[in-house]
Amino acid sequence: MGWIEAVVLGIVQGLTEFLPISSSAHLRITSAIFFENDAGASFTAVTQLGTEAAVLLYFAKDIWRIAKTWVVGLWDKSVRSSHDYRMGWYVIVGSIPIGVIGLLLKDMIRGAARNLWVTAVVLIVFAFILAFAEYWGRQTRTLERLTMRDSVVMGFAQALAVIPGVSRSGGTLTAGLLLNLTREAAARFSFLLAIPAVVMSGVFSLPDVFDTSGGGSIPSGAQMIVATVIAFGVGYAAIAWLLRYVAHHSLYAFVLYRVALGSLVIALLMTGTISAT
Q1: Which residue range forms the structural domain that includes residue 31?
Q2: Whole-number Å distance between alpha carbons of 211 and 107
């Protein structure tokens, strides 16, 4: 991997991780168009450590309060009725689906699922699902009204993101809207829900990112660090922007973008400009 590629992919990861447009799809497409290669699923997973560090910093007060209340609540029954204690369990339970599915489908995630035909079609299909959720959802429920059922449903929606093109945030936002959560409530829980799964995925992928047996772009340790740090800085800004945006705007702009990007990739594949694998 060249330094320009490492920097560009770090920026792309930071810009797209929290938007409902699929960061893994963007890394895959950017690599194919501009660098004629695939940085791989492990590179994506490790750079996500940078964006998740941005989540930890941005929501540090909320995370500390929830974690502290959850730990205290394990032996103090008086705090178990609090929203923060329940939120701790919601994040834990909601993180299980993507962990299990990720382990079971590890080979597919690193292989067949990264085919650009799959990515392009999934971008478009899930754009329409997101549009339906935006149109149909009543958006009457705040984060304080979240339930365990909601966390399980959003957890399974997050698990769909193992396929490039679905989008982890897109899946959870879509599920949240279908559950009648407000956009901001769905986005905030999406950020919290991602922490355990993404951190564990990144840590477990560290040995694989430098594996030369699978081909593709192999970063050096320094390049991996730089890309992850860049993803952290850009991702922090993206969090702040997205929370302001969803509070006042619909998600239809992302729907149109997904359809346009998916259509562009299909056109490039049909003309032989880029390779699907």
Answers
A1: 3-210+218-270
A2: 15
Reference 163, options 122, 206, 204; nearest CA is 122
What's the pLDDT tens digit per position in 90-140?
999 999 999 888 878 777 766 677 889 999 999 999 999 999 999 999 999
Distances (CA, A) of 23 to 17, 19, 152: 5, 8, 23
Q: How many structural domains compose the chain?
A: 1
Distance, in Å, from the CA atom of 88 to the CA atom of 70, rounded to the nearest integer, reads 6
Q: Show contacts of 1-8: CB within 8 Å, 24+ apart.
A: 1/39, 1/217, 1/218, 1/219, 1/220, 1/223, 2/35, 3/223, 3/226, 5/31, 5/34, 5/35, 5/39, 5/217, 6/219, 6/223, 6/224, 6/226, 6/227, 7/226, 7/227, 7/230, 8/34
C-alpha 216/C-alpha 74 separation (Å) is: 46
Contact 176, 146 (CB under 8 A): no
Give the tokens for residue 265: 């990739």
Closest CA to 12 of 37, 36, 43: 43
Q: Which amino acid is at 17?
A: E
- Tell me which residue of 193, 153, 165 sits closest to 261, measured CA to CA: 165
Residue 276 within a domain:
no
- Return the DSSP state at 216: S
Residue 277 lies in a domain: no
Instruction: Give tens-digit pLDDT for 147-183.
Output: 999 999 999 999 998 888 999 999 999 999 999 999 9
DSSP designation for 141:
B
The torsion angle over the Cα atoms of residues 233, 119, 92 and 107, rounded to 10 degrees, is -110
Q: If you search the block for the tokens 């999406």, which residue do you land on?
A: 190
pTM: 0.90
